[in-house]
Amino acid sequence: MQLEQLLHIDKNHVWHPYSSANGAMDNWVVKGASGVHLFLETGEKLVDGMSSWWSVIHGYNHSVLNHALIRQTEQMAHVMFGGLTHRPAAKLTELLLKIVPEGLNRVFYCDSGSVAVEVAMKMAIQYWFSKGVTSKSRFATIRNGYHGDTWHAMSVCDPNTGMHHIFNNTLPQQYFLPAPISKFCAGFNNTELEEVEKLLSAEKENIAAFILEPIVQGAGGMRFYHPQYLKKVRQLCNNYDILLIADEIATGFGRTGELFGSNHANISPDIMCLGKAITGGYMSFAATLCTHEIAATISENEPGVFMHGPTFMGNPLACSLAKASIKLLLESNWEQNIRRIENHFLKTLPALSNMSAVQDVRVLGAIGVVEMKENVDIKIVQKKLVQCGVWLRPFGKLIYTMPPYTISNSELNTLTSAMINTIKEVYE
Ligand SMILES: *Cc1c(COP(=O)(O)O)cnc(C)c1O
């Protein structure tokens, strides 16, 4: 197929994420990817600063992951999980349970992050149903959150920045608290929790669970908040008999400098969602973990089973990849690597903060964020970045990066120089 024809079909017949069908936005055609590089059909070689939305933590085309995939394909690519089980699922579970926060001990495997969130929310409701409490059917959350694009996941996304406001009238209504204010590494203001406590104590009969992204709020604004906030939310949930759901889909597997965001506050959620980086970016896959107490309560009461079971649940290819990717991570110097990337961002990006068009520059772990005062013109900014040899995907007011952990120092230089030069050229 000629490149022109490919682009014609794409422009006229294919949807892209959060895209218009009016053909005004161009898509770049990628023909391969290796290490931290994307190779375009038009010849450019780009340093990927997005890790394909947090997921490709070891880089593309990794021999260990390729091998795991091929070996498992030859064994069995898929088999139903109802009534059957297999080594890839058992081995992945054994490994996961060694590294997740204490107390989580049962795993529900599913297809994508949004589904993992749906499963978590259903689990919370069914847990209270099993205890004979039917009034606890709503959820509390914080503003600026993002939990996915499916129905109940949408209902706990920020009603404005969460990209779903046109559906607001048809969504279940949840309780929204202000986004945390205290920054990750500044002082903590205890009064922040007053409003949280007020809501939880007043509405405890109606709230099944509190759901939030630990420490880093991702697609809802790329904000980093204080671990003490998370610690206090955990305590308040205990005090008012409300389950805590940690959505670690973006924060999981080392990105923030700890294996999981919850670790910064030394807490264990009752339910935890994993996704994105779980297979090292090879396949769509996710998991919802819960405590023994939740699993037992659901299982020992009518109807005695948890009411969910996707067709591709526990897919062996995904399980094998996830096990291989997590093993690769644990055997690497990931903590040192994250610190190296963090230090590079801290050395380079703050130079932008004295520009008048820049609102804020923030860095945590292998995440670097430049928040502009106005919405970014993606078309102009992205084109410029590609000319500088870098792949980033700005959204809203944010130009941000979370590269593969394997990125070298010189590739990091390419990445941050491109960000700085692009922002200077476009905004100065
Ligand atoms: C990406 C994301 C989701 C949704 O995951 P999908 O795989 O896109 O469905 C949910 N929660 C958080 C925190 C995310 O970053």
Question: Your description of this structure?
Answer:
- The chain has 428 residues and is an alpha/beta fold.
- 36% of the residues lie in helices and 17% in strands.
- The protein is built from 13 helices and 16 strands.
- The strands form four sheets. Strands 4-12-11-10-7-5-6 form a seven-stranded mixed β-sheet, sandwiched between helices. A four-stranded mixed β-sheet has the order 1-2-3-15. Strands 13-14-16 form a three-stranded antiparallel β-sheet, covered by helices on one side.
- The radius of gyration is 22 Å and the shape is globular.
- It starts with a helix and ends with a helix.
- 46% of the residues are buried.
- Bound molecules: pyridoxal-5'-phosphate.
- The site of pyridoxal-5'-phosphate has 15 residues, from helix 5.
Features of the shown structure:
428 residues, 13 helices, alpha/beta, seven-stranded mixed sheet, four-stranded mixed sheet
